[in-house]
Specification:
single chain, mainly alpha, 5 helices, 60% helix, elongated, Cro/C1-type_HTH, Lambda_DNA-bd_dom_sf, Helix-turn-helix domain-containing protein
């Protein structure tokens, strides 16, 4: 019989036990947002300079948004980027387990 307490548990269970689940989920969400905006820019044939100009922001602010590892981006910046590429953002609060 296997006495390993993690056999049969999920990765989420392990991350929650370690206290890192929330942080990992936020990092994953930011990476998805950065990827989606980058892909939408490609579809619209917008380079970074044009995108920043349309957003009325700096190129460095756009770089922070598109950096999947940089989580210091405001909701306002995300919303402006989404608007420029013809998208909208949707957030949702869900019950904690």
């Amino acid at each position: 019989m296997n006495k390993n307490p993690h056999v049969g548990s999920s990765l989420d269970d392990l991350l929650e036990e370690e206290g890192t689940l929330e942080e990992i989920n936020l990092i994953a969400a930011k990476r998805v947002i950065a990827w989606q905006i980058s892909k939408a820019m490609e579809e619209k044939k917008l380079n970074k300079a044009a995108m920043a100009k349309e957003m009325k922001t700096s190129r460095s602010s756009l770089d922070r948004l598109l950096d999947p590892n940089n989580s210091s981006v405001s909701l306002d910046t995300i919303e402006r980027a989404a608007r420029v590429v013809g998208k909208r953002i949707r957030f949702e609060l869900v019950d904690a387990i």
